[in-house]
Amino acid sequence: MPVSDILLTMPAVALRGLVMFPQMLLHFEVGRKQSIKALDEAMAKGRKVFLVAQKDISVDEPKKDDLYKTGVIAVVKQIIKLPHNENVRVVVEGEGRALIKDVEYKDGYLLSTVKLCKQQKIKSQDTMYAQALIRHAKDVFDEYADAVPKLSPDVSMAIYSSENAGDLADYIAFNMMLEYQDRQIILDELNPLKRLEALCAMLTKESRLMEIESDIQEKVNAQIDKNQRDYYLREQLKAISEELNEYDNPQEEADEYIKKIEALEINEEIKEKFIKESKRLYKMSAGSSEAAVVRTYLDTCLALPWGKYSKDNLDIKKARKILDDDHYGMEKVKERIIEFLAVRKLAPDVKGQIICLYGPPGVGKTSIARSVARAMGREYRRVSLGGIHDEAEIRGHRKTYIGAMPGRIINAVKLAGTANPLILLDEVDKLGNDYKGDPSAALLEALDAEQNFEFRDHYIEVPFDLSKVVFITTANDTSTIPAPLLDRMEIIELPSYTQQDKLNIAKKHLVPKQRKLHGLKANNFKITDAAINEIIDGYTREAGVRKLEQKIAKICRKAAVEIADSQTEKVTVKPCDLEKMLGVAKYKDENNFKNEVGVATGLAWTSVGGETMPIEVAILDGKGEIQLTGSLGDVMKESAMAAISFIRSQADKLDIDKNFYKEKDIHIHVPEGAVPKDGPSAGITISTAIVSALTNRAVKADIAMTGEVTLRGRVLPIGGLKEKTVAAYRKGIKTVIIPKGNEADISELDEAVKKNVDFILAENLWTVLDTALEEPKKIRKRKNVRNVSANEKSVMNGIAQ
Fold first, then answer.
1. What is the C-alpha to C-alpha distance for residues 237 and 230, in angstroms, rounded to an integer?
2. Which one is catalytic: 35, 467, 681, 692?
3. What is the pLDDT of residues 48-68, one digit of tens each?
4. Cα 155 off chain centre by
5. Which member of 334, 722, 724, 731 is catalytic?
6. What is the pLDDT of residues 295-306, one digit of tens each?
7. Residue 479 annotated among the catalytic residues of the structure
8. Among this protein's residues, is 226 annotated catalytic?
9. Helix (H, G, I), strand (E, B) or coil at 721
10. Contact, 667 vs 617, CB < 8 A?
11. N or C: which end of the chain has fewer CB within 10 A?
């Protein structure tokens, strides 16, 4: 029987990542129990073992289909058990190729049935080709050996001395750095020439790969410039510093930032941006200025409350109690906040609201915002906008600038620690603008509920959601707020306080507050109601209570001195004590009204509240000149001219000499000449004062008036009625004449004002004159002048209307 037809049965070992060749000596480690048992069985029965590579190295218990068909019969030379584990190290020597016929598991190891492979001989006609192929293989190996570092001289010597094509192919394949799949291809080939041809192709491929790798390495080395050199030096310095524990590892710092970024509740776009900045930090010197910029940027961005929201207090009764405890009055503001909370309770996804509290100074606009935040259970932050004229104050600076920082809105959100705080934008009407930009325009995006869900600050460079923020702004004068910005806000007007309001606020809030601040107690310090009223009347004249609080604070200091100096144990402040504590009263009681000719009381609106404005008229012999004094504006001067024109047109009906404008000079003066005054609402007051002076009929002193007059005597509606009527009430005025067009505004007035002041609605100037002027003492008969009948007067009223 031919040797190649003989079937042999022997233990088999499946090799992972290794391929054995005939005539080769192989050292390898065995760990699988089945393989160790196969080696033990081989040692017990002639030392023969079949070594075959498995196709997938991850398979722990290979079967026949998991093994290559061609393997090598080898002799086990030595087995060494390793001391620290169950593995063994084995030395085997290959004898010849064999094909698997069958494989089975027996007693816990692989038992294989194999057939020896017959070695094919080179035909005589192929001898020359074989020699040439061997020479070519050696030349190719030379190229490969040049590219491979540290190749053993023994290997080279054996290759150069070999003249057998098959053995040369096996030897080179065994000692080359080839994948085990490529080595198996060489093992499977039984024809020595084809085997060597396949090996030459593999050698050529590997040589080319080695050359390409060498070229790449040369290019990389050529591209190492000063920055890369510095990088390598920094890496060495970092290693040294780590050994010395001199500073933190930049890699650890960058990893720490990335870890914090991954924990944030942000979208992928923002997360990618922050991670990119963190990786830049790793490449920089720890002490460089650019690294400090990146570090500051990341610290600022990570400090923002991404996705952190405080829980709203939606208990309406509790919120209403907080608002009532903190502030007296302000019913409209409180009502609006309660409405917001009610809507929030029913529709949690409602967007943030922008409310503008508009009113004179000292009425509590800033403090009510703090109370609103407490009532809603939100964090509170105040941003003062007065005098800001740089857009970057709102939207931040680019982080590339030295000293760059985020804008005031983002900074307020960061300080609040939640993404839904209540932010007070104080004094929004006092924003300025210059060549650096318009900050009011920068506020448009922040205060627009349709845009602020992705507000972009120039510093953080990524969108931040402001849609859950409640913005409250304050202003003294809405006329200075740009129209687009004003359009985004809901205006709530806070009127001036009445005498009773101030008394209640002082008793419930100001006195307890100042008493606590000055270390006084309720049992050793008290201010009577009469004293508080005297302070309000004699020492303060304001729409709010700021100066009132200052006076109370001054009294508390005086009382503290008396108690601390043991002069007394208890201080009770009465009206008679005020002159000693506060000095002489600044304002005297001016409510002793006296009817005068040529003097009418008007009402004016200012940014700090309403004021009474007496207007004086003097008639002098002259040439018909008209003199206007008191720092009057153009509109007010035009109102005076319109009033004079109307009086001239109605001279007969008013019992006035027709030639007064030729023979008399008219001097119109508004006191407090240093204070600029303007506006059309003094028209009826000027008209009344002029008619009073020309007819010598006194004006009733307890009547005030406001309204614009036309050439035909019509009285037009005006603005600021709420502040004006509070000023009249504060002055003690009993009757106020207002335009008929302002009738609907009466319902919006303070209850105390409506209770104590009578309102006369005037459609034309005749109603004003009939109400404000005293009846003439006697009717003077003049040439070309006649009395007006009731019927004629009715007709004239119709004309005036």
1. 10
2. 681
3. 899 999 988 888 888 888 889
4. 71
5. 724
6. 888 888 888 999
7. no
8. no
9. helix
10. yes
11. N
